[in-house]
Design goal:
single chain
């Protein structure tokens, strides 16, 4: 740790504080949004600079949120310590008290509370490393499971999807063990889209048929995908038309029970496709 004993030392402090840090990456917890902008601002004020800010930056908070945002009450480091590491700090100074503690030190020169801050920072560093290890273990363990909870399936699948690792993304989405839950339905639909992208239409059709058996948040999307595939891939215009008609009939029935803005949008989309298909069919005859 580096400690600034007085504001008069700030220029030299910032000029040399990063000189002994090896590597080409920085790791933080919430550093992208909080610590780094503050440091950059202070460097500008002191009219100094550092190659440190050009390094790659791994903010562990973003990774924690990616996998556990849906499962934890919040994604603070202390919550991660309690839930993932089963560890709780004793007699720790709250983070929000640290700025005032430093200002008190500048005024009085009393260092007893500063040692609490240093101890707090040590635990922050150790815990950040431990959370990184736990997140890696979480991914490794998920690879070995036959089934994943619907939330884990969604979080891990999205992680691989953003990296364009479609095989692993499909593996995660397709192992969702939920039953008719919101995320289970989303997992199945994502698995269908990946199958479509990989030209595995047999698997994609299996998911679309499953999703169109009963009404759910992806019911209309599944029927639309089937209609598109029948129209453009297999050239079975009558089946494509049937999908559109099913959707329009369902919209009519559901709109009698509840009013949703999406119904109007889906009605327009399927009506347009239905009209085009009817024209195609009449021309083919």
């Amino acid at each position: 740790q580096h400690f600034l004993p007085d504001y008069s030392e700030e220029h030299g402090f910032y000029k040399y504080m990063f000189d002994d840090l090896p590597g080409d990456m920085m790791v933080s917890f919430n550093g992208k949004a909080f610590d780094l902008p503050l440091l950059i601002n202070r460097f500008l004020i002191q009219r100094t600079g550092s190659d440190f800010f050009s390094r790659k930056h791994l903010d562990v908070l973003f990774t924690l949120r990616r996998f556990f945002r849906l499962k934890l009450p919040d994604c603070t480091l202390k919550t991660a310590e309690r839930t993932l590491l089963e560890f709780e700090r004793l007699n720790d100074i709250p983070s929000e008290q640290i700025p005032q503690t430093y200002f008190n030190y500048l005024q009085s020169g009393e260092t007893s509370e500063i040692y609490q801050v240093i101890k707090h920072n040590i635990w922050d560093i150790v815990s950040t490393m431990a959370v990184m290890v736990e997140l890696e273990r979480y991914i490794e363990n998920a690879e070995k499971l036959d089934k994943l909870s619907d939330m884990d399936s969604w979080a891990i699948g999205k992680f691989y999807l953003q990296r364009k690792d479609y095989d692993r993304a499909f593996s995660s989405f397709s192992r969702s063990e939920g039953v008719e839950s919101e995320f289970h339905i989303k997992n199945l639909f994502q698995a269908s889209l990946i199958s479509k992208k990989l030209s595995d239409f047999e698997t994609a059709f299996g998911y679309w048929e499953m999703l169109s058996e009963s009404y759910n948040p992806h019911y209309f999307s599944a029927l639309e995908e089937m209609a598109k595939a029948f129209e453009h891939r297999t050239k079975e215009l009558d089946k494509a038309l049937s999908c559109c008609q099913r959707a329009i009939d369902t919209i009519y029935q559901l709109s009698q029970l509840r009013n949703e803005e999406d119904f109007e949008n889906w009605q327009a989309r399927f009506s347009h496709r239905l009209s085009r298909l009817q024209t195609k069919l009449s021309k083919s005859k």
